[in-house]
Amino acid sequence: MATEPQLRIGQRIRQFRKRLGINQAELAERLGVNSAETISQIERGGRDLKAWELSKLARILLVEMPDLLEPETDPISPVLWRAEHGMGYKKLEAAFLKRCHQYAFLESVTGKESHDSFPQKAVDPENLTFNQVERLAEEVARQFGLGTKPAAVLEGILEDTYGVKIWYAPMEEGSAASVLGPFGPAILMNSNEAPWRRNYNFAHEVFHLITWKSIPPDRLSGKPQLRDKIERFANSFASHLLLPAESLLGELRTYITDNQLSYGDLIDLARSFHVSTEALAYRLLTLKQLKRQTVDKLLADPAFRGLDKCSMAACWRPVPPLIPERFVRLGFLAYTRGKISKAKFASLLDASIADLNHLLREYGLGDDKAKIETQVRVA
């Protein structure tokens, strides 16, 4: 008869397997056991697991060992994607959630948890209006201290002030995803996107995070019309957040000559606010600075598109690292303080112990614990 621990482990394995969208036969093949029936026995609690099997299962299922063993574990946090994706994204989502838990672990052992809880704004998704969304964007801009050029500072404020766990991954499609879990708020960003597109995506995901408790993912599940409506609100929020009316109109006036703007002026203004020319054009439309016909003609003009594309290289920031710098520094701090072993540190960075120093040097760090631990007296 199955014991309580066996039943619990089996249930967790089944839960994580289904999250990845793989069947019992696929898991059996990856684990290296005889058949799907063996996995069925494990999930029913009818078979003991060896230590190496548990370790391998954790790696396959993209979880940590405690997720399989501990009596009380957090439920799987639902990730809100910009659009519905196929099963191929299940692995990416699971890896993202695992990284978020690892991030929270490093914050905990180093005492670096964010002191500012991420704000929540109560909204009624059924009756929300674009005017309310605009006011919400203005309120968040003030609360976050985003200044006159919000896109230039938004990512840093999210990460450093509010403890948002930001991860990048190359995606064939899609822009971003967000989640609010026991580890706090987190955003997964497509590293293949242009920097100004990523800025817009950050602002878009902020809307989802600040309204998470009012509009959780399960409230949108199976409701495509409501989901589309909320996505339009998130787009509007992003536009108002990144292009605040007062500062945008003030700078716009410096470009206007005889009520005219050149293509170069529009492109330069977009680069100044770190947004795409398309986002700028539509924001100027909502501010009644451009007419719909003008915007449509502008964005359809190959000459404008060509000039815009030519100017991108000078503003294109390097592709962000797949492992965030703050995560690496937290891991390094935990290691030098003796909170985690060198093997654990290397594992968190997906590196071998032999390659660890080389990877750390890429982040401006090294493995000289003696120097790191040398103390100075504070006056």
What does this structure look like?
With 379 residues, this protein is mostly helical. The chain is 57% helix and 5% strand. Strand 3 (176-181) and strand 4 (184-190) form a beta hairpin. The model has no long low-confidence stretch (mean pLDDT 90).
Low-confidence stretches: none
Largest sheet: number of strands, sense, barrel closure: 4 strands, mixed
Tell me, what's the shape?
A: globular
Total DSSP helices: 20
Radius of gyration: 24 Å
Describe the strand arrangement of the main beta sheet, using strand numbers: 1-3-4-2
Distance between the termini: 65 Å
Listing every helix as H and every strand as E from the N terminus to the C terminus, the arrangement reads HHHHHEHHHEEEHHHHHHHHHHHH
Residue fraction in strands? 5-15%
**Global mean pLDDT:** 90
Helix proportion of residues, in percent? Answer: 55-70%
Total count of strands: 4
Task: Assign the structural class, choosing from mainly alpha, mainly beta, alpha/beta, alpha+beta, or little secondary structure.
Answer: mainly alpha
Brief overview:
With 379 residues, the protein is mainly alpha-helical. It is built from 20 helices and four strands. Helices cover 57% and strands 5% of the residues.
Write the layout of secondary structure elements.
Layout: H1 4-20, H2 24-31, H3 36-43, H4 51-60, H5 65-69, E1 80-81, H6 88-110, H7 130-144, H8 150-160, E2 165-169, E3 176-181, E4 184-190, H9 195-210, H10 217-220, H11 224-242, H12 245-253, H13 263-272, H14 277-286, H15 292-300, H16 302-310, H17 325-336, H18 342-348, H19 353-362, H20 369-373
Parallel strand pairs: 2-4
Antiparallel strand pairs: 1-3, 3-4
